[in-house]
Design goal:
The chain is mostly helical and 421 residues long. The chain is built from 22 helices and no strands. Residues 212-234 are annotated as: Disordered.
Length: 421
C-alpha cells in the first residue's frame, strides 16, 4: 500500500494528455510551424533591407542565405540524430533546438553586416534540423504504422500555416514598424512553443508510469515475459483511439541500436527512393522563395506587404493536401500516391511564365497543393525503413530525410541576379 501511495504522489500531472498522440502531434506541428514562420518572416523583406543597406546583387545574396540555412541543416541533422538515439531522448534535444532557434532570431535581428546574417542563418538551419528530426521521431514513437501517414500529414499543417503566415506578417510588420518588428513576433512565438515543449512527456516515460499503475492495481494481471513480448508486437500494429497514449510504438527499434545505422539504411531501397524524392521536393518547393519577391517587385511593382499577401495563394491549399495524401498512403501505400501528386504538380508551373497576376496565383495555388502532398507519403517511406531494419531509430531515418531536403534546397546557384541588380 505504501508503494502504491508513493507511486501516485510521484505521478506527473496531466500524464495522459501530455503524452497523448494528439498533444505530441500538436507540439511537433507547432514547432515545425514556428520554425517555418521564423524562416519565412524575412523572406519578403530581405531584398528590400539589403537594398536599403546599399548592397547589390540582391538575388545572389538572398540565395547565399538560403544556402547557409541548408548548410546548418546538414550539420544539425547529424548531431540531432546521434544525440537523440544515443541517449534515447527526444524532449531535451527538442528544447535545445528551440532555444537555438530563439538565439538565431536575435542574431539575425541585430546583425550589423551581411556576414552576420549568414552566420545567423546557419544557426537557424541547425536549430531547424533538430526541431524537424527529433520532432518527427517523437511522433513515430507514439503512432502505430497504420496511422503514421495521416499523423505526419497533420503535423505538416504547421509547415503550411508557418509558410503562409510568415511572408504577409513579416511584410506588414516591416512596412509599418520597421526591420525589428517581424523578429519580435518570431521570438514571442518561439517562446510560446518552448513552453509547450516543457509539458511534453515522452511515450517511453509515460509507458513506465502507466504500466506501473496497471501492475500495482492488479498484480495477477502482469504478463509473463513471453506474453509481454507477444503483446508488444500486437500493440505495434493495433490502431489507437484519437488522443490516446500509445504504450509501445516500436520496441524492436528501441531494444538494440545499430552500430552502423547509416550503412544499414543505405542498404534499403526505400531510403534511396525517399532521399531522391526529398531532393526533388527541396529543389522545386523552396526555389520560388528567393526569386518570387523580386519578380513581383520587377513585373508588378509590389512592395513587401503585397509580396507577403501573394504567398497566401501558394501555401493555403497545402494545409489540406498533406493530411489527404497521408490518409491515402496509409490505405494504399506510398508509391503511387507520391507519383500521382508529383505528376499533378508539373503542369501548373507552365502558367508561371505568363506575366499575368491571376494566372500566376492560380498556378501557384495548384502547384502548392500537389507538391506539398508528396511529403507525407515520403515520410511514411522513411518510417517503413526504420521499422524494417533492426537497430535503426526514427531519428536516424529522418536525419537522412532532412539532409536530402537540405541538399535540394541548396541547389540554387547563388550567382543569379535580378534585373534590378
Amino acid at each position: 500500500m505504501a508503494d502504491q501511495l508513493a507511486h501516485k504522489r510521484a505521478k506527473p500531472w496531466g500524464l495522459e494528455w501530455r503524452s497523448s498522440v494528439n498533444y505530441l502531434t500538436f507540439v511537433v506541428s507547432l514547432g515545425i510551424g514556428t520554425d517555418t514562420l521564423v524562416y519565412s518572416l524575412p523572406v519578403a523583406v530581405i531584398p528590400f533591407q539589403l537594398d536599403r543597406w546599399g548592397y547589390t546583387d540582391l538575388s545572389s545574396r538572398t540565395g547565399w542565405l538560403m544556402f547557409a540555412f541548408a548548410f546548418g541543416i546538414c550539420i544539425g541533422t547529424v548531431l540531432a540524430a546521434w544525440i537523440s538515439e544515443r541517449y534515447n531522448t527526444r524532449r531535451l534535444p527538442m528544447l535545445a533546438g528551440m532555444v537555438a532557434l530563439i538565439g538565431s532570431i536575435i542574431m539575425f535581428m541585430l546583425a550589423p553586416t551581411y556576414a552576420v546574417l549568414v552566420v545567423a542563418r546557419v544557426l537557424q538551419g541547425l536549430a531547424s534540423a533538430i526541431i524537424w528530426t527529433v520532432g518527427v521521431a517523437l511522433i513515430c514513437d507514439a503512432v502505430p504504422p497504420n496511422r503514421v501517414g495521416q499523423q505526419m500529414g497533420t503535423a505538416l499543417v504547421g509547415l503550411s500555416v508557418g509558410s503562409v503566415a510568415g511572408p504577409p506578417i513579416g511584410g506588414a510588420l516591416y512596412a509599418k514598424y520597421g526591420f525589428y518588428a517581424p523578429f519580435y513576433f518570431g521570438i514571442a512565438l518561439a517562446v510560446l512553443d518552448l513552453l509547450t515543449r516543457l509539458l511534453v512527456i515522452e511515450p517511453q516515460d509515460a509507458r513506465k508510469w502507466l504500466e506501473d499503475e496497471e501492475q500495482h492495481g492488479d498484480p495477477e494481471s502482469q504478463p509473463t515475459s513471453e506474453g509481454a513480448s507477444e503483446e508488444k508486437q500486437l500493440e505495434v500494429v493495433a490502431p489507437a483511439p484519437e488522443g490516446a497514449t500509445i504504450l509501445v510504438a516500436a520496441p524492436a527499434i528501441a531494444e538494440q541500436k545499430s552500430p552502423r545505422p547509416i550503412l544499414e539504411m543505405l542498404s534499403h531501397r526505400l531510403t534511396w527512393v525517399g532521399a531522391f524524392n526529398m531532393v526533388a521536393y527541396g529543389m522545386v518547393g523552396p526555389s520560388l522563395n528567393a526569386t518570387l519577391p523580386l519578380r513581383l517587385w520587377d513585373v508588378f511593382g509590389f512592395d513587401s506587404t503585397f509580396v507577403g499577401l501573394i504567398y497566401i495563394a501558394i501555401v493555403v491549399p497545402s494545409c489540406f493536401s498533406g493530411i489527404l495524401s497521408g490518409r491515402l498512403a496509409d490505405k494504399w501505400g506510398s508509391k503511387w500516391i507520391a507519383v500521382l501528386y508529383f505528376g499533378a504538380a508539373i503542369p501548373w508551373y507552365g502558367l508561371l511564365i505568363i506575366p499575368s497576376l491571376p494566372l500566376d496565383i492560380v498556378g501557384l495555388a495548384f502547384q502548392s497543393f500537389f507538391l506539398s502532398g508528396t511529403v507525407s507519403p515520403i515520410m511514411r517511406d522513411f518510417f517503413t525503413v526504420a521499422m524494417e531494419i533492426k537497430g535503426v531509430g526514427f531519428a536516424h531515418v529522418y536525419a537522412i530525410f532532412n539532409m536530402a531536403y537540405a541538399i535540394g534546397k541548396s541547389h540554387r546557384s547563388p550567382t543569379k541576379t535580378s534585373s534590378n541588380d
